[in-house]
Design a protein that fits this description.
The protein is mainly β. Helix content is about 0%, strand content about 55%. It is built from no helices and 11 strands. The strands form 2 sheets. Strands 2, 4, 5, 6, 9, 10 and 11 form a 7-stranded mixed sheet that branches. The mean pLDDT is about 95.
Length: about 110
């Protein structure tokens, strides 16, 4: 299983980014997917998760109403649309398969700075 995250970069506060996670080696539609992040000096934390069909999503309070997780099972890709970014969102963002098994991608750096 491979999870390839992309779309990170440097963005100004208030800006937006869209992260993508391309999955291979598994049937994406059979798996619950999530995004997590790890800021410097902090533990990895949950950001968002989406069920197999895409009908149910859950967000961390810190990103609710600013981030949107979505998936395209046909393209085996999961997305994280991020808006109203603040410096507190600076982190390495990881996509993951969370159920039924646990797999992690390599992460993509998001830096929010003026």
């Amino acid at each position: 299983v491979q999870l390839q995250a992309s779309g990170g970069g440097l963005v100004q506060p208030g800006g937006s980014l869209r992260l993508s996670c391309a999955a291979s080696g598994l049937a994406l539609s059979n798996n619950i997917m999530g995004w997590f992040r790890q800021a410097p000096g902090k533990e990895r934390e949950f950001v968002a998760t989406i069920d197999r069909s895409g009908a149910t999503t859950v967000y961390a309070d810190s990103v609710k109403d600013r981030f949107t997780i979505s998936r395209d099972n046909a393209r085996t890709t999961v997305f994280l649309q991020m808006g109203s970014l603040t410096p507190d969102d600076t982190a390495v963002y990881y996509c993951a398969v969370t159920s039924p098994r646990n797999y992690w991608g390599q992460g993509t750096q998001v830096t929010v700075s003026s």
